[in-house]
Amino acid sequence: MKFSGREQARRRRDERGASSIELVLYMPILMLAIFLTIQLSLIYLGNQAASAAARETARVARTTLDAGQAEAAGIAYTAKIGKGILEDVRVVVSPVGTEQVRVEVTGHAQKITPFVDPPTVTQVVQAPLEEFRADD
């Protein structure tokens, strides 16, 4: 079926602005999806930094048997690898019984929206203490 020139012009006129309206409707949804993707990526990155700091702190606590030294090492490690990724870091080293140590690293991941509280990430590592025995 063929349309005359007048009918084709009328059809084109009727569809003018449709893409602008679609853009206005879909752009907020697209921007929200982009912001959520970036925020979730930043939370994941902060979680990985907290996990690495917890493992390093547990390693120091297992070998030195000194909670203060291990906490200082954990904070220094987080400052080195988590700079700009993990903020307000708190490292807690506590013994579990007589043969294990528990390390908890808590901090805030970066946020990209000013009206939402920064997401909190927490990683816990529990490991056995190392004991060196002399040969008999």
Tell me the strand percentage band: 15-25%
- Placed side by side, the strands forming the largest sheet appear as 1-2-3
Domain unit count: 2
Structural class by SSE content: alpha+beta
What radius of gyration results from the CA coordinates? 28 Å
| Shape field | rod-shaped
In DSSP terms, counting alpha (H) and pi (I) runs of 4 or more, how many helices? 3
Main β-sheet description = 3 strands, antiparallel
Low-confidence stretches: none
The pLDDT mean sits at: 86
Succession of helices and strands = HHHEEE
Intertermini distance:
101 Å
Structure description:
The model has no long low-confidence stretch (mean pLDDT 86). The chain has a three-stranded antiparallel sheet with strand order 1-2-3, with helices on one face. Helix 2 (18-64) runs antiparallel to helix 3. The protein folds into two domains: 13-83, no CATH class; 85-135. It is of the alpha+beta class and 136 residues long. The protein has helices at residues 5-15, 18-64, 67-81; strands at residues 86-96, 100-109, 120-128. It has three helices and three strands. Helix content is 54%, strand content 22%. It is rod-shaped and about 105 Å long.
